[in-house]
């Protein structure tokens, strides 16, 4: 197959790896891959290593005549049979670029909201009749998309954005750098904080856990040092054992050094990458009961599911793991199982190949 991918590769290495490794695996399988993306990125060397042609592109506008022209030119020059667009601005430009051509247009959908029949903007995205197929990152996303589309011939599928445990085979961080140690029971929370990330419920849970003297909580990400979080930390009874790290580029290594990750999102998400990173690192997860988290976490096997917006339930599960070495060992031992099966990178690459071939 001759595939043109319209994507962005300017984020951090850990962020872009699950997606960009898909295209490398397709190239390894003998398919011709052309990327229209930023030439200078953390993945530039790997693209070159596997013979992937990279054409400089920035997706800054929903409709850019230059971008549309460039996509049309590449389609003709490289005899492209499939165009795969992975973000909203790439998708809208791809729709116009592929008008009146027989190339197959596939778009990626990674969120469970924002696509509605009554929203005209959705017709510059997956609802547009020119779109032949939609790859959804989870069943929750697929269900949402299928409720909105009119055209039943549009091929909508779920293909998980898989990981490989070997990507996380690195030495865990030294927790002493953050004011704790491996001898303590360490809980990680990771997010660039917005209200729906649920940080407030993690900090409120700390109030219930202050009596556990070896318990430490690491809060990792941007914008955590603000209200109301600072006041909650101050009044938690364990403020000296709650460590705010700020943004970190070594998140998987920090998670790997911790005993459990808490993912407390209060609304639907596509497929939380941090949960998959944690499990691939061998660290079990306590997750709020969002649909996508339920696709990853098997309660009592590789972590625990708690009700949304329930600080007491989060605290109770942390206390269980902290007080029972046997339960902690059991969920830790099974953390990687789902990554090696349902969410493996190899399975993802295989399903992309099968899906693209089915369109042709």
Structural features:
six-stranded parallel β-sheet; 360 residues; elongated; alpha/beta; seven-stranded parallel β-sheet; 13 helices
Description:
With 360 residues, the chain is an alpha/beta fold. Helix content is 36%, strand content 17%. It has helices at residues 13-28, 44-49, 65-77, 88-97, 139-148, 199-207, 229-234, 251-257, 273-280, 291-296, 311-323, 325-333, 345-359, and strands at residues 2-6, 32-37, 53-56, 82-85, 104-109, 133-136, 155-158, 185-190, 215-220, 242-246, 260-263, 285-288, 303-306. Strands 3-2-1-4-5-6-7 form a seven-stranded parallel beta sheet, sandwiched between helices. A six-stranded parallel beta sheet has the order 10-9-8-11-12-13, with helices on both faces. Helix 1 crosses helix 13 (345-359), helix 3 (65-77) crosses helix 4 (88-97) and helix 11 packs across helix 12 (325-333).
